[in-house]
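Exercise 7. Predict the joint structure of the components listed below.
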Amino acid sequence: MFKAIRHYVQQSWLLLVSAFVFGLLLALANTAWSPRVQQNKKDKLNGLMKSLITDANRFEIVCEDVQVDIGRGKIVKTDVYKAVGADGNDAGFCFRAEGMGFADKIELVIGVDAAFERIAGYSVLASNETPGFGDRIKGDYFRRQFAGAPVMKLGLSKSGDACKIDNEVIAISGATVSSTAVVNVFNNYLEQVKERLKQKGLVR
Amino acid sequence: MADRTMTALDAVKGGLWTELPVLRLLLGMCPTLAVTTAVKPALTMGLSVLFVLFCSNIVVSFMRKLLKPHLRILMFTLTIATFVTIADLFLRAFVPRMSEMLGPYVPLIIVNCIIIARAEACASKNGIFVSAVDAISMGIGFTVVLCILAAVREMLAVGTVWDIPVLWKGFVPWAAMRMPVGAFITLGLMIGLVNFMTKTKAN
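Solution:
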């Protein structure tokens, strides 16, 4: 018995000591830098929300962990932020949203007006879509079509007038999958988030 | 394992020319092809690899006489993973934009063949000084190649280098240079050029 333990310790002591020392090193680095990492994430989200609702002075969470069914039985949670203007009035709502893109998950920040009737726009929080094609979901041509569109089921067309703002979005040429993914994200989230806010009496 | 199989001068020559990791040994292809769409992410990746290579080479060299042959690779991976996690945390804390641009390629440094290869071929057989010199020269060689590749791609794909416009007004960007095909073609030309220079010198 002791012989086996001794053999085990002789063989693995360096690995055990190293694992302990490296673990300690990682814990120190994480303790020192994680507040800054969290702050960076908050700043980025606030910056994107501010770019969507320019009247906002500050953002406060009004609905935590709203469950959204994003299809195929997958439920995700999101926090809904209320944008408060400089005069203290509601300026709109923002929330994070996600869906599957062409290459990977697409994460968006979606903004809507205070009555939850018109879309204020969206910004891309994270995506790995194909450079030159799918990543044009970050560009103005596609994003502009959502700003001012009604909060209702959105459709996607391959051709049409991209300047006309309605519930029909014109796809990016050569990036139909990415365009569809963004429209699906809107269709999944808008209705379910609005329903939750209605339940809480935040919108009519 | 016998010590002092190479000198510091061998390490410098190897890292910067005779064993140039990307162009001669064809190691580290994943980040080379993936993050060279612009110079800034390429430089960040190069410096991250340099940091991890330097730290892991020193640690591996320090404990080389204690390493059991069957635990060797496990110890290398543990060491490399620790420093990669530190580099990743640092980038997320202080250079968040670059961290986002590099995405999963920073954590993937753990399986970068250059680092494991140098731990095995150099650090586990040489003293701390030679291992450190080897790490610095290999890291610089890798970073310089990445930056040159990225500069060519960024210039032809967007018309800028380091976000500064360098081509004439009205230049039509080559979208293909931003995509993998651009990376493969540029890398192939660079490898061809290095082989041509070596052959010419030998003749």
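Discussion. Chain A touches chain B at residues 11-12, 14-15, 18-19, 22, 25-26, 29-30, 33-34, 36-37, 40, 44, 126, 128, 130-132 (CB under 8 Å).
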